[in-house]
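re: ur question from yesterday

yeah so i grabbed the chain u mentioned. its 215 aa long if i counted rite. heres the sequnce exactly as i have it in my notes:
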Amino acid sequence: MARAAATRKVFKIALAADAVDLATGVLQSTPTVTTSVALATVLQNDPVLAPFFDRPLEKNGLTVEGIAVRGDNLYAALRGPVLDGGQAVIARVPLATVFDGAPGAATLYRLALDADTQGDPRGIRDIASAGEEFLLIAGPENDPPKKHAVTLGDYAIYAWNEGAAVKRLDLPPYGKKTKPEALVVLGQDEATAQALLLFDGPKEGQPTPVDIPLK
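ran it thru and got these structure tokens back, copy pasting raw so excuse formatting
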């Protein structure tokens, strides 16, 4: 339990505009770091999510695998639970509730992200802001059996903006057991977002460029 509690912290890191030497990447001043455990409390108090709190991922337990911020809200993307046989969850929580102690609750969004090639429902592996939308990595809530290699259709990228999620790209296999786990948006135009995929397993995350159609 103590180990689980230690993983529930959220950090806000504030940097001055001139804090980073753009030529070397070296910090020129110490950032301000604010730590909070309020997000876990909000999720635990939500009547829909409460039954899944402190349950292992393998048993459809509550697992946050991505966080994004827009405006005054934090968006927590859940790998689990997957609800009602196939609905992934994003929880929107006011930043003031997470970091300033203001009262607030989670607003839940249920997303149909289809299933992987084994027929297993997909949760969310990461969330990243891209203009007026978010981009999500959808992947199986539980990793497939060892004998099953990652194939086209196991993982996909969806666009979402508090409505229905829209599939933008089925991800090809990047290795037999190489699982997409993180998405970093580098830039975009009207038609395409340029991003890096990072993976669980390969050395240094195997950052891999990917172009994501936005229309």
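noticed a couple things. The mean pLDDT is 92. also The longest strand covers residues 73-83.
anyway ttyl
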